[in-house]
Write a structure and sequence with these properties.
Elements: E1 3-5, E2 8-10, E3 12-15, H1 24-40, H2 46-62, H3 74-86, H4 90-103, H5 106-112, H6 117-125, E4 129-134, H7 139-145, E5 153-156, H8 171-179, E6 186-190, H9 193-202, E7 206-210, E8 221-222, H10 228-232
């Protein structure tokens, strides 16, 4: 089984999750309302906000750091670094990050899922194997989106074998190891130019950018996931 992309035979397609399988702008608005409501009830405070913002800022910093410079799991390293910068207890930081960045968004995900996603995945699965590769753990998100059955491989940068955020981690190399395929036989689809597209291309993996606003001409780009059928199943 295979699909064709730029005259190449593609045997496996991997997707990013956040912002690629669902509309992250809608999710941010819904989460903001949830946080405002929690703050009104006294269940969310500035201290928690500071933890989340610092965690996100450090994520951007870690994207430029090679995994060879770390000897501890990425998830723990990220939490510890956030706690150290804020002079807080790592366990307290972990509790807040897990609640507001991993657990609370789950109930909102399906309402933010891109229209036609399941139909597209079902059609693609008839032609090649599918997988996901995201910076953060994906299993719970895929279940919340209702699409877990479409994917053979569920990989994240937090996995021991990756241990580094896109684009500098070992994750893209891992796609080849997991599938036993050559880089040119794999296609990666994501919504971020640097972490997703350039990260994949650096390792010889084909890539398509899903971005409604970008005007970059150097890469293959679609404005919506539904346009992928024209590229891959024509």
């Amino acid at each position: 089984m295979a699909v064709s992309f730029e005259e190449k035979s593609i045997a496996a397609i991997f997707f990013d999750v956040d912002g690629t399988l669902y509309d992250s702008s809608i999710m941010k608005k819904k989460m903001l309302m949830k946080i405002i409501l929690a703050a009104f009830k006294g269940k969310f405070c500035f201290k928690q906000y500071l933890m989340i913002q610092t965690y996100r800022s450090i994520h951007r910093e870690l994207q430029a750091e090679p995994p060879e410079e770390r000897n501890i799991p990425l998830a723990k390293y990220h939490i510890d670094l956030t706690a150290e910068r804020l002079n807080m207890n790592p366990s307290e930081v972990h509790k807040v990050i897990f609640k507001w960045m991993r657990r609370e968004p789950l109930s909102l995900l399906k309402s933010c899922r891109y229209e036609g996603l399941c139909l597209l995945l079902n059609e693609l699965k008839q032609h090649c194997e599918l997988g996901v590769f995201s910076d953060y753990p994906v299993e719970d998100k895929l279940k919340a989106l209702g699409v877990e059955s479409y994917f053979k491989w569920n990989l994240s940068s937090h996995d021991h074998e990756s241990n580094g955020y896109k684009p500098r981690g070992n994750g893209f190399k891992r796609l080849c190891r997991q599938t036993n395929l050559k880089p040119e036989e794999i296609l990666y689809i994501g919504d971020e130019m640097n972490s997703d597209i350039l990260g994949a291309k650096t390792h010889g993996i084909n890539a398509i950018l899903v971005n409604r606003k970008s005007s970059i001409d150097e890469v293959t780009r679609v404005r919506h996931l539904s346009e992928l059928k024209g590229f891959l199943l024509a």
